[in-house]
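User: structure tokens for this one?
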Amino acid sequence: MLADPADQLRLLTLAELDSELGRLQHAARSLPQHVTIAELMKSRQAVTDDLVAATTRVGDLELAVRRAESDLVPVRARLERERRRVEDGSVTDPKVLRGLMEEVERIQRRINELEDAELDLMGQLESAVAERDELAANVAVGDRAVVGAPVVHDVVDALERALAREVRDEP
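Assistant:
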């Protein structure tokens, strides 16, 4: 039994449309934009990895600054306590008083060392925060570049819909 010529023509048209769709899909998959998008994604991932490392460094430095400040609290309290003992006259023995004054000087040097270390950490923290903020801005720029890149799948989907409409509209 032979098929109706109209059905045969419709099958041939369908075969041509299917072939055209396959060709368009292949062309869309091999577009240079795919390479661009892959490069953008790779670059974005590298910047994101750097951002994670910078954020971790900021967190570590914030913790170190808090620790340095908490290290100063008992030393300052001890300095204040020893100064009061020197100033209130409760120590009358000259040797003990001289030893106490030397202790006050030693504690003051220790405080200066701790404050210098804290200032150094604060400077490192400031630099790390600036680096993190710059990397975050770079990630945002990368995101905009990826979003702005031509999306091939949208083109293929539009072509498939157009071909499907054409097939439906065929008599």
